[in-house]
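Q: Flagellar biosynthesis protein FlhG, please. Structure only.
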Amino acid sequence: MGSNHPVQVIAVTGGKGGIGKTNVSVNLSLALADMGRRVVLLDADLGLANVDVLLGLKPKATLADVLEGKCDLRDVMLNGPGGVRVVPAASGAASMVSLNHQQHAGLIQAFSEVGDNIDVLIVDTAAGIGDSVVSFVRAAQEALIVVCDEPTSITDAYALIKLLNRDHGMTRFRVLANMVGTPQEGRLVFAKLSKVTDRFLDVALQYVGAVPFDEAVRKSVQKQRAVYEAFPRSKAAMAIRAIAQKVDAWPLPANPRGHLEFFVERLVRPTGSGL
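A: Structure for Flagellar biosynthesis protein FlhG:
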């Protein structure tokens, strides 16, 4: 029954609120879809679902309804712009870690049913370094850490990387600098983060690029549209397009561990049980 089609699972996270993480998730999804990828965007911010708000979508059902067996994952998916399908979060839902056995099985089943027609699953995590964030990030293949040029953003990103490295053995992280003034500033933010991780942790950080601060982003948020769609020639949209091309070149998982069911199995396994 399961899919044998490898899916790139990317968790977009950052440890801190207000760094434009959801904007990155949404626009990266659109840019990848534009390149012909079949993209599903999972709003995993279980406390403060906001992907649907950002895109002006009105969910009739959420992931919570899937877990309760009321409907299929297909029924919950919303058609977003550019062919991106959105799985809205259950606002205020219990952490994925506290699901019972039947719900675990239901979630794995739900994702395996849609796995064959997905190429990329982008997971927009909540802010902070709580259990729900950690469980989504450690289950994904790629952790994309969003940082901006603020001391708290860098310290929070470091705290998240440290936790994932020490408790879950994660050693590779991708870093995106958001809302920067210049490309040099993006590199500088990355250098600040690398400096602390190199000193205290045994991890490899890879710089993916920077998205500039752009008034067009604020305007698009007011319109409840993605900047990539509303202002495709804007600096932010062009930067996202360049980043999407890099992301698209990331190696696909070559083994069965890269299939969607495996992502979900890791997601629901209690924290601390390793892989």
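A: Brief note, in case it's useful. Strands lie at 8-13, 39-44, 78-79, 85-87, 120-125, 142-147, 172-180, 204-212.
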